[in-house]
Amino acid sequence: MKPPAFEYHDATTVEEACTLLSSLEDAKVLAGGQSLVPLLNFRLARPAHLVDINRIPGLDRIYERDGGVAVQALTRQAAVEDSDLVARVCPLLTAAVRLVAHRVIRNRGTVCGSLAHADPASELPAALLALGGHAVARSTRGDRVIPAADLFTSVMQTALAQDELLIEAWFPASPAKCAISEESRRHGDFALAGAVRSGDRLALFGVAATPVMADPSHPTKGLSPSGDLEATPEFRLHLVQVLTERLFAA
Ligand SMILES: Cc1cc2nc3c(=O)[nH]c(=O)nc-3n(C[C@H](O)[C@H](O)[C@H](O)COP(=O)(O)OP(=O)(O)OC[C@H]3O[C@@H](n4cnc5c(N)ncnc54)[C@H](O)[C@@H]3O)c2cc1C
Fold it and tell me: Whose CA is nearest to atom 53 of ligand 1?
């Protein structure tokens, strides 16, 4: 399949990317392309413009701030997986990123791209939510902080405005008792359902339109997941019940 026609813009600074996003109608950011390019090829997305941020220097840092780790827009998932800083400060993020797809995809895919893409079965949005982290959005109007609890609004929808670049994500230090667990058909597939524990906090993924916070004692309360060829709603509920019990028993 070939993508529909679009105009390609190669931004070389963050300011240029933000100016392009604010002036172009129907533009999308291109980061690792691991979600956007398949969507284009299947013609499920038809943006008029792509703003490529890959050649912006200095946008791939991982650094410590405010007792957690900040991951910039161009930081590849593989770099986070290999980071000693992340392993020391937020091992939950290391564990979560290792469950994303396969290494070849993580070599290109970015952490911020995964958050902006907001697939309800994704690990990283659920990890950010469980930890109580936030995203920093930048536009020509300035920066704004979006707490994880407000970031994910629906299936592949976020609180980011059309002209905003997710410039970095901030993950708080993970507490001693933290873990992520999921079930998928094959290694590297998207999860059928999953659970993230961060201390006493629990976030679930794959069981609603967005990752959701849940009560560890009654994890399935209020949930009505959708069913598909891979799993019925009942099976997804069963999975998160069992995964939660295991996470909190460990
Ligand atoms: C075979 C396969 C298996 C996969 N399995 C999993 C999996 O198990 N779990 C999982 O979570 N993901 C999985 N993915 C998706 C992968 O992790 C992607 O890398 C990720 O979802 C998107 O990151 P990206 O950098 O490639 O973003 P892109 O594909 O470049 O962009 C994705 C979307 O986010 C927007 N975007 C990207 N960066 C920004 C930014 N900085 N600011 C604003 N908007 C932005 C784009 O405009 C686009 O709408 C899989 C992908 C493939 C191809």
Answer: 34
